[in-house]
Amino acid sequence: METNRLSHALGAEIYGVNIVGDLSNSEVEAIHDAWREHHVIVFRGLELTPAQHIAFSLRFGALDDHAATPHERLDGHPELLEVTNKPKKGQPSQSRNAGRNWHSDYSYTGRPAAASMLYCTEKPPVGGDTMFCNMARAYDDLSDKMKSVVDDFQSVYDFTLVSGAAKRDPAKMVELLKVNPPIAHPCVRTHPDSGVKALYVSERTSHFDGMSRAESAPIIDYLCRHATRPENVYRHQWRVGDLVSWDNRTTMHLALGDFDPSQPRHMLRTTLQGQKSGYVVPPAEP
Ligand code: OGA
Ligand code: MN
User: Fold this and answer.
1) Residue of 251, 269, 270, 271 to mutate, ligand 1, most atoms within 8 A of C-beta
2) Would you tell me how many other CB atoms lie within 10 Å of the CB of residue 210?
3) Is the beta carbon of 255 within 6 A of some atom in ligand 1?
4) Does residue 285 carry a pLDDT above 90?
5) Residue ranges per domain, the chain?
6) Quick one: DSSP state of residue 62?
7) What's the pTM?
8) pLDDT of 178-192, one tens digit each?
9) With a 6 A CB cut-off, is 116 part of the ligand 1 pocket?
10) Is the CB of 64 under 6 A from ligand 1?
């Protein structure tokens, strides 16, 4: 197995391992090690069936059934989420504007995603890139004083802050808000495998628990700008057949709308279940 780093901050391509074959435990361990080190790993040139995508993902842990976003599941495969701008059953896809603000997957749930594995089956001729930033470096780069301040914060995640919320079907939105009320998670989390500390705040954080929106906003804004500085980012230009796997505990990502929306962009995602976390809170005070 060979790795080829894709940027200074994070990301590596992996070659020389057939992920649709019967992977040995040592191959899985080697992939896991590369993933822990680079946070985002890329496999190229695949032709995955849903069953192969699911089987590979399962080698790394239990999969989420996506009950938090039930309308985006692939028919017959609750372990696969469709991220697509192609109409579904004659209706606009609910995921057509998904991911257009910096986030970590399922942060608005009581079981934030450990990792995600996104597979590209169709892409526009140009654009439709995804950016990733390294939240462990972002934490590490803070001053000791700032670290000690954010160490005590709880970030409140609010489903209404997902991108494209206003363009979603309002009835489905009401349903989703019932399943996903505002929830607080630690603003700094320790990775269960590596012990690395990483920031956990995003453009979907409404406020810090115990503080008003007005008090929180400048700090959230600063932390997001700090985390997403260009030198802390890897920008993935998709090719059909790419499988990109990211660790949601040490990264954020952003789907860029830098493409012609009349061109199909179609992806399938598995989500590795994280640990249960968080407590439900009332919506933010102004
Ligand atoms: C996701 C997501 C980004 C993209 O699948 O979780 O945010 O570029 N996708 O489609
Ligand atoms: Mn996402």
Assistant:
1) 269
2) 13
3) yes
4) no
5) 2-84+97-274
6) P
7) 0.97
8) 999 999 999 999 999
9) yes
10) no
